[in-house]
Design brief:
Blueprint (H helix, E strand, L loop, with lengths): L1 E7 L4 H5 L12 H17 L3 E4 L3 H14 L3 E3 L16 H7 L1 H8 L11 H18 L4 E6 L1 H11 L18 E7 L2 E9 L11
Parallel strand pairs: 1-4, 2-3, 2-4
Antiparallel strand pairs: 1-5, 5-6
Helix pairs in contact: 2-3, 4-5, 6-7
């Protein structure tokens, strides 16, 4: 059996401001760095064998703190990136709605609002190809994948038998939460989703 320990990167300023990031965006903020340290301590207790990360700054910074706690080397993998949101990167929902209400409604209905970048279906297929290849290489029994909310939901959808990306049917993935998926022979099983018990509590609202 192989166990995937899927984590979303720590918080960034764009996360806090509600901005789409996609393939761009800043590194971790102070809260995100604290989250990554807490996650690293938990993962160290689980004894992982391999640490693979998306190659974007926010995931690499998260992986660095996990590597410090676990002693594992970091293996960047572009196939674990978030969906490419194209021209929506850096914008908030309010900005998009004001600029193109039709596209924003299309996104609310479950489709892809942007017309550049990639679709959720393309991202889903890319992530599953990447994760399947990692599993088939048999590099370890416990593999940490440092990725993004869309990546985590794509793998969770796969593990629960959905043929495509089911983002509207899964909760948002909290920064530095832990999602566990097992593969036994060819059977995928979702063991836990969005576990954030290791994280410091959110600060009270201003």
């Amino acid at each position: 059996m192989t166990r995937l320990l899927l984590v979303r990167h720590g918080e960034t300023d764009w996360n806090r401001e509600g901005r789409w990031q996609g393939h761009t965006g800043p590194g971790l903020n102070a809260a995100g760095r604290e989250q990554a340290v807490a996650l690293g301590r938990r993962l160290a207790r689980l004894g992982p064998d391999l640490l693979v990360t998306s190659d974007l700054p926010r995931t690499l910074e998260t992986a660095e703190r996990i590597a410090s706690a676990t002693g594992l080397a970091i293996h960047p993998e572009p196939g674990l990136r978030e969906v490419d949101v194209g021209s929506w990167a850096g914008r908030t929902p309010a900005e998009i709605q004001a600029r193109d209400a039709v596209a924003y409604q299309r996104w609310l209905d479950g489709g892809t609002g942007w017309t550049d970048g990639e679709t959720y279906e393309e991202m889903h297929a890319r992530v599953l190809r990447t994760v399947s290849a990692l599993l088939d290489r048999g590099l370890g029994e416990r593999i940490v994948l440092v990725a993004h909310g869309g990546t985590v939901r794509a793998v969770a959808s796969w593990a629960t038998g959905h043929a495509n990306h089911e983002r509207r049917h899964l909760p948002s993935v909290r920064n530095c939460s832990l999602t566990v998926v097992d593969r036994w022979r060819e059977i995928m099983r979702l063991i836990s989703f969005n576990d954030d018990g290791h994280l410091p509590p959110d600060p009270p609202p201003l």
